[in-house]
UniProtKB/TrEMBL annotation:
Matching Pfam families: 4HBT
InterPro entries tied to this protein: Acyl-CoA_thioesterase_PaaI, HotDog_dom_sf, Thioestr_dom
PANTHER family membership: ACYL-COENZYME A THIOESTERASE PAAI
Every Thioesterase domain range: 64-130
Name of this protein: PaaI family thioesterase
GO molecular function: acyl-CoA hydrolase activity
Natural source organism: Candidatus Sulfurimonas baltica
Length: 160
């Protein structure tokens, strides 16, 4: 009977090791400032949940309005992480700022890859403060073979 228990324990251990091996690992935007772009709360293939805690550096006026650029940046970060490819870049975005965000608010983002075609990915991102939707956007991204700052134009390669 002891052997049967060992087999069960070994089987359970193998399952846990398997789950650990299949854990989704962050492959992109690994050194962004999380104070300005948000923290990853949940990461799955094609999906991310993140949280942006507003800080004084984001405030745009005396009433505590958070500049929309910080909301956009956090939404963009969520979109890039949802794609989670090393060389993903944003090429276009259509978005709406639906409600103001103020200092002290915590914005929760959800980003989901909706469409994948070749190197292109479309990511839908929503942002909420409590139950109020404050942001919604469709991010169009491309995954490049090399880092965007290391790409060369075909003409440059032929000249060199």
């Amino acid at each position: 009977m002891q052997e049967a228990n060992n087999v069960d324990e070994d089987s359970e251990l193998d399952i846990n090791e398997y789950k650990e091996e299949n854990k989704v690992i962050l492959k992109t935007h690994e050194i962004v400032n999380i104070d300005l772009n948000g923290t990853i709360e949940k990461l799955d293939n094609g999906y991310v949940e993140s949280k942006l805690v507003t800080i004084p550096e984001m405030v745009a006026d005396d009433l505590g309005l958070i500049h929309g650029g910080f909301i956009f940046s956090a939404a963009d970060f969520a979109a890039m992480v949802a794609v989670n490819e090393k060389n993903v870049v944003l090429v276009a975005c259509e978005c709406q700022f639906l409600s103001p965000v103020k200092f002290g608010d915590i914005v929760y983002f959800k980003a989901k890859v909706r469409h994948k075609e070749g190197r292109k990915r479309n990511v839908h991102v929503t942002g909420y403060v409590l139950d109020i939707k404050v942001f919604e956007g469709e991010f169009k991204t491309v995954v490049t073979e090399r880092h965007v700052l290391k790409l060369k134009l075909i003409d440059e390669e032929n000249e060199g």
